[in-house]
């Protein structure tokens, strides 16, 4: 299992477009990908689950990847999260 912690810098938070992109990236990998935010664990392969969490700007979130291709998944998610 690998994990990374991020702070969402985007002024509008994690709205539909970035939530969908995170889910698209997560779905490419066989490993389990979860987001932990405000004490809740969310399946990152579901854009609706990500959007329903209401992740606002300056919110800290943790991405957990667990499985056979976890290193590649966390690397790509880390890169994407640094851009939003």
Would you kindly provide a written description of the structure presented here, covering whatever features stand out?
The N and C termini lie far apart (24 Å). This protein has helices spanning 16-27, 47-52, 70-83, and strands spanning 2-7, 32-37, 40-43, 60-66. Strands 1-4-2-3 form a four-stranded antiparallel sheet, with helices on one face. The protein has a single domain (2-83), classed as Histidine-containing Protein, Chain: A, CATH 3.30.1340.10. The protein is α+β, with helices and mostly antiparallel strands and 84 residues long. The protein is 38% helix and 27% strand.
How many strands in all?
A: 4
Rg, alpha carbons: 11 Å
**Total number of domains:** 1
Which structural class fits the helix and strand makeup?
alpha+beta
Question: Which fold name corresponds to the CATH topology?
Answer: Histidine-containing Protein, Chain: A
Oligomer: single chain
What does the average pLDDT come to?
A: 94
Name the CATH homologous superfamily: HPr-like
Placed side by side, the strands forming the largest sheet appear as: 1-4-2-3
CATH architecture: 2-Layer Sandwich
Beta-strand fraction estimate:
25-35%
What is the overall number of helices? Answer: 3
N-C termini distance: 24 Å
**What overall geometry do the principal axes of the alpha carbons give?**
globular
Unreliable spans: none
Helix content bin: 25-40%
CATH classification, class level:
Alpha Beta
Order of helix and strand elements from N to C terminus: EHEEHEH
């Amino acid at each position: 299992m690998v994990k990374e912690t991020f702070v969402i810098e985007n002024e509008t938070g994690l709205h539909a477009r970035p939530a969908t992109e995170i889910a698209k990236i997560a779905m490419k990998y066989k490993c389990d990908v979860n987001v932990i935010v405000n004490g809740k664990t969310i399946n990152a392969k579901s854009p609706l689950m990500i959007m329903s969490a209401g992740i606002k700007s300056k919110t800290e979130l943790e991405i957990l990847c667990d499985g056979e291709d976890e290193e590649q998944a966390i690397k790509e998610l880390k890169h994407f999260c640094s851009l939003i």
